[in-house]
Write a structure and sequence with these properties.
Helix content is 76%, strand content 0%. It is mainly alpha-helical. It has one domain. It starts with a helix and ends in a 6-residue tail after the last helix. This is Glycine zipper 2TM domain-containing protein. Keywords: Signal.
């Protein structure tokens, strides 16, 4: 069996078992990481995985910062 078909089947299996996951930042990070990995020695899959992890981390950090900022903002009382 072709290695590409195996990778596609494995990815489909993972996506089917995950269900609804919080993937904020993962897709964008995977896209950027995959492209960078491809140009840095044909390691697109490794780059995509790393990009997904980093993208998810940055999105979570950004969401936490925004939540903290909303809590600090005082309400205006008249």
């Amino acid at each position: 069996m072709n290695p590409i078909k195996i990778a596609i089947a494995a990815a489909a299996l993972v996506l089917a078992t995950i269900g609804t996951a919080n993937a904020a930042g993962c897709l964008k990070g995977a896209l950027v990481g995959g492209v960078a990995g491809h140009y840095a020695g044909h390691h697109a899959v490794v780059g995509a995985v790393g990009g997904c992890v980093v993208g998810h981390h940055l999105a979570k950090k950004h969401a936490e910062e925004q939540a903290a900022q909303r809590q600090v903002t005082p309400t205006r009382q008249e």
